[in-house]
Amino acid sequence: MDNIRTSLITGASSGIGAALAQALARPGATLHLSGRDKTRLDMVAASCRDHGAAVECRVLDVCQAVAMADWIGAAGQLDLVIANAGIAGRSPDGGPENATQTRAIFEVNLGGVLNTVLPARELMAMQSPGADGIRGRIAVIASIAAFIAAPDSPAYCASKAAVDRWMVATAPAARRNGIVLTSVCPGFISTAMTAGYQFTMPGLMDPDRAARIILCGVAAGRTRVVFPWWMGLAARAAGLLPPRVMGVLRRP
Ligand code: NAI
User: Fold this and answer.
1) Gap between the Cα atoms of 232 and 188, Å rounded
2) Is 214 near ligand 1, meaning CB less than 6 Å away?
3) Which atom of ligand 1 is nearest to the CA of 144?
4) DSSP strand E in 73-229: where?
5) How many angstroms separate the alpha carbon of residue 228 from the centre of ligand 1?
6) Per-residue pLDDT, 197
7) Strand locations in the chain (E)
8) What number does the ligand 1 atom closest to the CA of 63 have?
9) Which regions of the chain are under pLDDT 50?
10) Domain ranges for the chain
11) Pick the CATH number of 6-246 from 3.40.50.300, 3.40.50.720, 1.10.246.10, 1.10.357.10
């Protein structure tokens, strides 16, 4: 990670985003962090500054395309951009997300990712390549949910499948232009998103450990990072099941 000095992270005020910011914080590092909650964002920024990083914070909704492009375009040199912000919605009766939740999930998890990755790609295409030929790296936090069609969260699974497929399919062309794209597919991580879940979450992992795994995969230039590996394997196998037996699945 020595070649990653300047990073930009969306949804950095909690959970995986906050853990990524803290893992990247060190003397000489510059972090551009955004989120919607100023108080929590300021707390994360303060702890990153304690580790020696310079931090710029912006209260920003990833659905605001123009404001996102302005923010990213004005950040200067960026070695790493992480489109982390995401939401899930659950119905109290265990059924699918309602209409409002469905629209919001696609707007944030798909629209918000495009509002982050497209301006980041444009910016990085103009940056000079390093000695390794790399102009910059972009990661999206998708999910193992991308591999399944869980009946309790169709919009979440579909939104994560869309960004995962888009990142993986775009990666070869971006790589030829010196930009490394990574789709990150975590299993269950212990954050605000999973705090209210009543069901058993196999392989539940703390966000700090998840952040280390993510950054290791990103620094290695992997196109897709799936963890825990056995959850990825199980999800892919479950994705092959006939739709009628998918009814029991729940998504990470
Ligand atoms: P979290 O709820 O702690 O963090 C989500 C962050 O995104 C929060 O800071 C929130 O304020 C921000 N956010 C949500 N909507 C936003 C918007 N419109 N504009 C700007 N920021 C917005 O949850 P967690 O778990 O840290 O989620 C981070 C990412 O990881 C999400 O994309 C999630 O789908 C993904 N993920 C989480 C898993 C888990 O088990 N917790 C598993 C797989 C993926």
Assistant:
1) 11
2) no
3) 43
4) 80-83, 136-141, 179-186, 224-227
5) 18
6) 85
7) 6-9, 30-35, 54-59, 80-83, 136-141, 179-186, 224-227
8) 18
9) none
10) 6-246
11) 3.40.50.720
Residue with tokens 């952040």: 211
Q: Give the count of beta carbons closer than 10 Å to the beta carbon of residue 130.
A: 12
Encoding tokens for residue 239?
């994705």
Q: Please state whether the peptide bond connecting residue 228 to the residue before it is cis, i.e. omega within 30 degrees of 0.
A: yes
Ligand 1 pocket mutation, candidates 189, 194, 208, 251, criterion most atoms within 8 A of CB: 189
Mutual orientation of helices 154-176 and 112-125 as an angle, nearest 10°?
Answer: 10
Q: d(Cα 245, Cα 167) in Å, to the nearest integer?
A: 29
Lookup: tokens for 36: 């919607």
Q: What is the pLDDT of residues 26-84, one digit of tens each?
A: 999 999 999 999 999 999 999 999 999 999 999 999 999 999 999 999 999 999 999 99
Q: Look up residue 186 and give its two tokens.
A: 């975590």
